[in-house]
Design brief:
The protein has 227 residues and is an alpha/beta fold. 47% of the residues lie in helices and 17% in strands. It is built from nine helices and eleven strands. It has a seven-stranded mixed β-sheet with strand order 4-1-11-10-5-8-9, with helices on both faces. Strands 2-3 form a two-stranded antiparallel ribbon. Helix 3 packs across helix 4 and helix 5 packs antiparallel against helix 6. The chain is globular.
C-alpha cells in the first residue's frame, strides 16, 4: 500500500477508546511504546480501521512525524551502492524522499505540517542505551560481512545502522523552507506534538508509523507503509 495513493486511516470512536483503555491491563506497556496495540485494535475495534484514497482528504491539514519519514527515506531511497549522495559525498536520500512525498501530498490537496523531534524524555534513556548496544552489534556484524564480501549481509546491517541525525533534520527543514512548507520543532516527542495538534483542532490527522500517537490522543492516524 502506498501512502501517496491509499492511506490506512485509523479512526478511534468514543466506544473504541473506552475499549482500548479498558484492555490496557492486558498489554505489556513500555516507556516508549505499547506491544500489540495494532493487533488489539484489529481484534476489538475492527471498525476503527479503514482503507481510503488519500484524495478523500483534499484540503485537510496533516501533522507529519518528520523523523519517521526521514528514517524511511534513508532506508528506502537508495541505489545499488547504497544511499544517494551529492558530488561532495553528502547523503541526499532524505532530501529526495522529502521533496517527492511533499509534492505528491500537495498535488492531492493535502496541507502537510512536518513535526521534528525535540529533546527525548528522560524515560527514553534506557531505550536509547539499548538501541546503541544494538548498533554496536550491527557494526560488528557489518565488519564481518564486509571482510567476507557478503553483499546481502552488508546491505542488511547497513540498514540497521541507519540513524536520523541532527544534520539530516536541519537539511530537511531548509528544504521545506525553500518549498514554502511549514514545520515545527516539538518540545519532546514528535508524535506527541502531532497528537496535541489534532486534539486542539489545528490539524485533521497525524501521519506516522508510531502507534504511540493514538495513546497520546490523536483520533485519526494515517499509517504509511511503503515509500
Amino acid at each position: 500500500m502506498s501512502f501517496f495513493v491509499n492511506s490506512l486511516q485509523i479512526v478511534i470512536t468514543e466506544y473504541s477508546v473506552i475499549v482500548i483503555w479498558f484492555l490496557f491491563k492486558n498489554i505489556q506497556i513500555f516507556a516508549m511504546g505499547i506491544l500489540n496495540l495494532t493487533k488489539l485494535l484489529a481484534d476489538v475495534a475492527p471498525q476503527a480501521i479503514k482503507e481510503t484514497d488519500i484524495k478523500t482528504y483534499f484540503g485537510r491539514k496533516i501533522a507529519i512525524d518528520a523523523s519517521m519519514c526521514l528514517y524511511q527515506f534513508l532506508i528506502a531511497v537508495r541505489n545499488e551502492s547504497g544511499q544517494l549522495t551529492s558530488i561532495d559525498g553528502e547523503t541526499t536520500s532524505h532530501l529526495l524522499g522529502t521533496f517527492y512525498r511533499t509534492i505528491r501530498l500537495v498535488e492531492n490537496g493535502i496541507k502537510p505540517v512536518y513535526v521534528f523531534d525535540g529533546k527525548p524524555p528522560d524515560l527514553k534513556s534506557g531505550e536509547l542505551s539499548k538501541r546503541q548496544e544494538k548498533r554496536v552489534e550491527a557494526q560488528k556484524a557489518l565488519d564481518v560481512a564486509t571482510e567476507a564480501g557478503d553483499v546481502a549481509e552488508m546491505d542488511k546491517f547497513n540498514r540497521r545502522l541507519v540513524k536520523v541525525t541532527r544534520q539530516h533534520a536541519e537539511d530537511a527543514k531548509q528544504l521545506l523552507s525553500l518549498m514554502g512548507i511549514p514545520y515545527i520543532d516539538a518540545p519532546c516527542e514528535a508524535e506527541a506534538q502531532c497528537a496535541a495538534m489534532v486534539k486542539a483542532g489545528k490539524v485533521f490527522a497525524t501521519a506516522t508509523e508510531d502507534m504511540d500517537a493514538l495513546t497520546f490522543g490523536s483520533k485519526v492516524l494515517f499509517a504509511p507503509h511503503d515509500v
